[in-house]
Design a protein that fits this description.
Layout: E1 2-7, H1 15-22, E2 28-31, E3 40-44, E4 47-51, E5 64-67, E6 72-73, H2 75-89, H3 93-96, E7 97-100, E8 104-105, H4 108-120, H5 133-141, H6 156-173, H7 181-195, E9 199-201, H8 203-212, E10 217-220, H9 246-251, E11 258-266, E12 269-271, H10 283-293, E13 305-307, E14 309-310, H11 311-321, E15 325-329, E16 339-347, E17 353-354, E18 367-374, H12 391-404, E19 408-412, E20 420-422
Helix pairs in contact: 2-7, 4-5, 4-6
Length: 427
């Protein structure tokens, strides 16, 4: 079976840490969507590292890691990321990393198009990371993109040039013409040559063979469920399917093979970029939560918007993903607060109270209905089991479990992999 691990909010939930924590239980870790717009932060042995495209299981030497066909790959970013991993940790990526030939390539002009489109939106910008993600997925759907397997083709440069010429026409239409494409292309083609040194494979065969051999497999998602292109706060979403169903199309496996679905959420909420955020805290309280939680984007460095936990949104993500276990992150951050609030319902403009997500949060302004909890007001550094957590935190956990109908089987109480509580009985 393939277990799936994904975020249930607007990304930045802490997926990288949990993949790294769980990796010893799995023989294969596979990324199924997203690209360099994702930032999975891992910390162990006092060292912090951020992965963008490489699966978070690479630091476990006996784990096979796969970049699936649903990912979009920037060769330049990949090279920098791979070289950093090899240099800092001595990991032999050439041995334990496999890249699908069907993975779409991010070209320099994709990043330029991303910037041009965002500029053209003016005040209606969606807060793109400008990594070329959207234009690359657009070319994929338009059936004109380049894939990793194309770099092995004798006429790769010809294919590349045809697509670049199409991009240049669009850039000219947007009056986006001030860039040094020659310099950008040099870095790109150097990175493509570097990429060729890795195992470029038909990964769908590798992962299905692993299934036949009864190997344990973990599918790693990027971004968060509330950024899903269909079910997120459209148009302030990413360009891929971030739901559990995306693991099937993004890796080439049948739905019947999906096992556990780990849903990861912060004990509060954050969001980077534009888009609706019903429980967002402004001014002093929001600044305080950001400061204590060190809430800055791992990919962009942008300050994250912060707010209280949103249960209607959480339940929505749980429902769509078929989540079987919950993982609660950054509980330690709330130790600094005497009072903690949780949004249980929304009040609509007509006064109606609902626990469902409206179709369009962009146009329908909702008022959060809160339930207040006492803070635990003490450090969690010495806590080593669920039985030892402070009573107010136990009440907080129990309420979320009751509301979602799911067990919280992991609680993260710090960035290091060891700062994690596990309910072994339900894992």
């Amino acid at each position: 079976m393939i277990d799936v691990l994904l975020g249930l909010q607007w990304g930045d939930e802490g997926k990288g840490k949990i993949v790294d924590f769980l990796a010893p239980r799995y023989q294969v870790v596979a990324r199924f969507q997203g690209g360099p717009n994702a930032g999975h932060t891992l910390e162990f042995d006092g060292i912090k590292h951020v992965l963008h495209q490489i699966p978070s299981g690479v630091f476990r030497p006996h784990t096979k890691n796969i970049i699936g066909n649903g990912v979009v790959l920037d060769p330049i970013v990949f090279r920098k990321e791979a070289e950093a991993v090899i240099e800092k940790f001595g990991v032999d990526l050439h041995k334990n990393l496999y890249i699908s030939k069907r993975t779409q390539l991010i070209m320099p002009t994709h990043r330029l198009l991303d910037a041009a489109y965002e500029q053209a939106k003016g005040e209606n910008k969606i807060g793109s990371t400008l990594k070329g993600i959207g234009p690359t997925y657009s070319d994929k759907i338009a059936r004109q993109g380049l894939r990793v397997g194309d770099v092995l083709s004798a006429n790769f440069r010809e294919k590349y040039r045809r697509l670049v010429d199409r991009h240049l026409v669009i850039l000219k239409q947007h009056n986006f013409i001030y860039f040094d494409l020659v310099a950008l292309e040099k870095d790109f083609f150097d990175a493509v040559e570097y990429l060729k040194g890795y195992q470029l494979v038909e990964s769908e065969y590798i992962i299905n063979t692993s299934l036949q051999n009864k190997e344990t497999i973990l599918a790693e998602g990027a971004q968060g469920s509330l950024l899903d292109v269909d079910f997120g706060s459209y148009p302030f979403v990413t360009s891929s399917t971030t739901m559990a169903s995306g693991a099937c199309t993004g890796l080439g496996v049948a739905p019947r093979h999906i096992g556990e679905v780990y849903g990861i959420f912060k004990a509060y909420c954050t969001r980077v970029g534009s888009g609706p955020f019903p429980t967002e805290l402004k001014e002093e309280m929001g600044d305080r939560l950001r400061r204590v939680g060190n809430e800055y984007g791992s990919t962009t460095g942008r300050p994250r918007r912060c707010g209280w936990l949103d249960l209607p949104a959480l339940r929505y993500a749980v429902m769509l993903n078929g989540v079987t276990q919950l993982v609660m992150m950054k509980v330690d951050v709330l130790s600094d607060f005497d009072e903690i609030k949780v949004c249980t319902h929304y009040r609509l403009p007509d006064g109606t109270v609902t626990d469902q997500l409206p179709y369009d949060l962009c146009d329908v302004r909702v008022e959060p209905v809160y339930k207040t909890f006492s803070g635990w007001g003490t450090s969690l550094a010495s806590v080593r089991s669920f039985d030892d957590i402070p009573a107010p935190l136990a009440d907080y956990v129990a309420f979320i479990e009751e509301t979602t109908g799911l067990p919280i089987t992991f609680i993260s109480m710090g960035p290091d992999r060891v700062a994690t509580l596990v309910r072994e009985a339900v894992v």
